[in-house]
Design a protein that fits this description.
The protein has 294 residues and is of the alpha+beta class. The chain has 8 helices and 10 strands. The protein has a single domain, classed as 2-Layer Sandwich (Nucleotidyltransferase, domain 5). The longest helix is centred in the last third of the chain and has 20 residues. GO terms for molecular function: nucleic acid binding.
Length: 294
């Protein structure tokens, strides 16, 4: 509850016919998370001619589908210049490592450098990926005018993740006069990260539209689906996150709530979608009193 209420402004205000406490628009938040992405769907539907043979999938069972761990970093879309919109899709990186071909085969010669998937993902793989790719990508795309303002990179509490006080991470966040801080979301709050609220499912669906036969084709398909994802949908997911935080305050910190729906797509098409959610004054006051009682 304390984490959710920290995004709500303490001063009450009236916007139109609604009075309450507004949520922070979350333009200074970067969400980082991993996902196992399957190379193909469990089932595929094919429309065939009467004399056409169905394609054969060479798998023992559906459980043996190839999958790759992906690291994704996104932020909320923001128009910070009349001529330019902030690129919210900061990057997508597969967990791969290079190795040297030890023996010659009919497909490859000895000594060729190849890539293979990293399984399982541990901290010694996660930390270099943050330092080598994530932080430089964020600094490259982040608005220069926001350089001195604190920006937070949120990760969950998975075991491979680095500590927020790690000296290398702190140095990477402050190097070059930047002010990025790594934070962890509260424990047992799976709905507090944007990527799990619909982003991963969306890019997975886009990737399934293509047939892939090799790991290289899979990586290209996922990267293309990440590029093709509509930024307006990501903006809607950030609004869903604010609604989820209000649900947590209403439920007094429990997670036995249903994900809210407010026909956000319809409101966006009508140009009536708000940039922030309004928390009811009664909900805010009761949550604040409960937090102070502990």
């Amino acid at each position: 509850m304390a984490y959710a209420i920290s995004f709500v402004k303490s001063a009450s205000q009236r916007i139109g016919e609604v009075e309450g406490h507004t949520f922070d628009p979350m333009f200074g938040m970067v969400h980082v998370d991993e996902k196992w992405s399957n190379d193909d769907t469990k089932k595929r539907v094919y429309y065939l001619l009467p004399d056409e043979e169905p394609p054969v999938r060479h798998l023992h069972t559906a459980r043996f589908r190839e999958k790759t761990m992906l690291l994704v970093a996104v932020a909320r879309p923001n128009l910070f210049n009349v001529m330019r919109t902030f690129d919210d899709k900061l990057g997508l990186w597969p967990f791969l490592e290079e190795y040297v071909m030890q023996r010659a085969s009919k497909n490859r010669t000895k000594g060729v450098i190849l890539e293979r998937k990293i399984e399982p993902v541990k901290r010694e793989f996660y930390k270099p990926l943050l330092l080598t790719y994530v932080f430089p990508s964020i600094k490259e795309k982040w608005p220069v005018g926001e350089m001195m303002r604190p920006a937070f990179i949120q990760q969950d509490n998975a075991t491979p993740h680095v500590l927020v006080s790690d000296p290398d991470i702190v140095h990477a966040g402050t190097e070059g006069n930047w002010n990025f801080r790594l934070v962890c979301q509260p424990a047992r709050t799976p709905d507090f990260i944007i990527l799990d609220l619909g982003y991963f499912a969306a890019i997975q669906s886009l990737q399934y539209e293509q047939n892939v036969f090799t790991s290289e084709m899979f990586i290209k398909a996922v990267a293309q689906s990440f590029k093709d994802f509509d930024s307006n949908k990501l903006d809607i997911i950030f609004l869903t996150l604010q609604q989820v935080m209000e649900c947590v305050l209403i439920c007094k910190g429990r997670n036995d709530y249903k994900l809210p729906h407010m026909t956000k797509g319809k409101h966006r098409r009508a140009c009536k979608l708000p940039k922030f959610w309004i928390c009811a004054s009664k909900t805010y006051d009761e949550a604040a009193k409960l937090i102070l009682s502990f």
